[in-house]
Amino acid sequence: MSIFPRPVRSFSTLACAVAFSTSLMSVPAQADNKDPFNMDGQESPELLVYLAEKTDAEQWAANYGLKMRRQLVGKADAYVFVTPSVEEARKLLSIIRQDRAVTQAFNNRYVVALTQEPESCGNPWEESHCWDHPYDPPELPLPYDPYFDANLKLHAGQWHLYNEMGWTQINALGAWQQGATGTGVVIGVVDSGVDMAHPDLLVNTALSYDFTHDDNDPSPNTEMARQVYSHGTEVAGLAAARGGNGIGVIGVAPFAGVAGLRVPLHGSYGPGELATLDTFVDAIYFGEQEIPIKNHSYGPAAPYQPRDARVSALQETAAQGVIHVVAAGNGQKINTEVGEIRVRRDASARPYSIPEAITVAAVGPEGYHADYSNYGASVVVTAPSKACAGCKPGLLTTDVSGADGVNNPFFDLFPDPDYVDTFGGTSGSAPIVAGVLALAKQIRPELNSRWAKHLLANSSQMVDPEDHSSESDGGWQENAAGCRFNQNYGFGLVNADRLVALAGLKDLELTPLLTWDQALRIKPTVIPDADRTGVRFAFNFDSHKDPADALEEVGVSLRIEHARRGEVEIWLISPNGSKRRMMHRYDSDHDPFTTGIGIADDEGQIQPWTFWSHAFWGEDPHGQWTVVVQDTEHGALGTVDVVQLHLRMGRLKMRNFQFGSCEFGPQLLP
User: Fold this and answer.
1) Which domain range does residue 239 map to?
2) Is the pTM of this model over 0.85?
3) In 3-state terms, what secondary structure has residue 567?
């Protein structure tokens, strides 16, 4: 029996005209004649400083001759201070970090954050899986909202939620029928803004904020590019459009609330102006006690951007229970002899690919990886989206209301200007997972990121079983604990029905997190040129000396100097003999970024980059681990001088039974 009444169908008329205009807006930083893309990750003349309790910020600033620009809204002990120059900021940073009144300090770097919608059909040399044939609408009683089911002449409906056409879907229907609707849960949409007035969204005004302009109205600026300013509203609708209200669409979590957390995504504010990381840090901290799930459908313009204060904020808030869902990304634009193409990338080279976040890839309606979606060992799960930028069907969701949205006569033929059916990218797959986790949060209030990963590992389903692509590390592989993993899809396609059922099991517990870290003391070691044997580094974990449990994430930190880092590939061999790729080589001919693997910190020191993997989930960590670094092409040489191994351990258990594999769900669920 449905929890929603069946509404009367109605369609709005198509908007007749759209007026375009542009304006400059006030944003945190100005940079005359500087290309924002070239400034991404660069130092600014500002410092982001966290001060100890009871410190007078103005007096502290005066002692160092600093001017306070702003105090963060989401973290009351954090401030942005202005120095005369980048050089002065760099010098002062090392000094103030010794001050007992300072708990943390960072350069307030420039940031370029891009929406994760596909702008092209990806690499033209890859096969695209696009739906382009007629279909019959499902013959089911679907008592939800008007656009939920397909209308043969107008749209494909919300196929990603449920369909009987054989397309990819998350079986939201089954989760709703278990009583999971997201009631009492607020989803934070860290994005370009959310339309506060949209009739199909319940936006919590008290928990919303515009960090771009430091005010209480997170509505998007409708004078900027439509694809960007509508983005946050589209994301919000996928996660939590209101259900059972007789209009429009239904979100994955139809009774959840939305917090609009507007940040300066590239293209959503004035041309030539630069965003700084404090706005993103502020949004990550904001409302951490009231907003248990936050969605981040944006990403950097290039790999290996600094893991700065944003990552620290993600880790700190995750430790307090906030679940951060992040898009795996839509590859990267590369200029080639045949023109500009978009090449998929390993998501492990993105700053938010950390254990504290849920990284989500995209799968098209026919069950194949979306041709733009990044991949990698850091991917946790996949969710439906468009197969490519020009493919149909897209995701049907809320749009900025009225003629100002993406959906207008110049862009689309969808019959209602408050909605759009062409949304896609990993921007679309991430909020679908955020919505599913809101359903689980209602059922299990203690849900956090660790809980979420265990539930996803034990409830997600295999897709594309014949995949043997190089990006996926050869396709689906089962490790020694019985866990299946694929670097295109993570643990598989999210299944809302199964995940909610697993979350609702009584007496289900999660053992405490155990961690183990070891660094090798090595001299710079040459990586053999074009040699698949590579150079090897061994670690021994003795569970008799160290606390141990079944594995969760495994990380490898490396600092590599190499003239063409696209030639480098990194592997890890577990004590059980499972050999899994930690980092996929790039297409070095098309990779303009030729520096090594590592990133400069605020003091100019090159720090190792940590790659995380879920492929060893559930295995026994005891024994010898081997890190393998390979150079895959002739020519440039490289060296390794830092190698570290990180183990994170824990497992689900119920009563006296403990399970160390991904077979927990199948043993307990129908």
Assistant:
1) 115-450+489-503
2) yes
3) helix
